[in-house]
Design a protein that fits this description.
Blueprint lengths: L2 H30 L2 E6 L4 E6 L4 E6 L8 H31 L8 H17 L1
Antiparallel strand pairs: 1-2, 2-3
Helix pairs in contact: 1-2, 1-3
Length: 125
């Protein structure tokens, strides 16, 4: 591998890493904004969960008094589970593109094959 080619390859890898890190950062920011709403018991119970499926808000309608405590508890759990499943699905779709290795980023095998050439290039710089 010529020094010029090695330098271009190294530059391409660095650019690829930088672009990938920017996509990761954007995905993290979008993930932080994920909030999912779900309802149960004929809309008497409304929950909001975050990207981790953690309950962040719980609301009861005025007619919640028509339910007993066990029904309210069951409705909260039902709505929270539904919202958590939806949140997990959104997060999976959000991070799926980030989990794919960009072609500009070499595999470990490719990188280790180039190490002697990269070391020589860096030593000359």
């Amino acid at each position: 591998m010529s020094n010029e080619h090695a330098g271009e390859r190294l530059s391409t890898m660095i650019d690829g890493f930088a672009e990938h890190l920017e996509r990761v950062k954007q995905a993290q920011e979008q993930r932080a904004q994920v909030v999912v709403e779900a309802h149960a018991a004929d809309d008497r119970v409304t929950v909001h969960v975050n990207a981790d499926g953690a309950l962040v808000d719980l609301r009861f309608a005025d007619d919640i008094v028509q339910l007993d405590y066990d029904e309210i508890a069951a409705a909260v759990l039902t709505a929270a589970r539904e919202a958590a499943v939806t949140a997990a699905d959104r997060v999976r779709k959000l991070i799926a593109p980030v989990q794919q290795r960009p072609s500009a980023i070499p595999t470990i095998a490719e990188l280790t094959a180039d190490i002697p050439e990269l070391r020589a290039l860096l030593a000359r710089s």
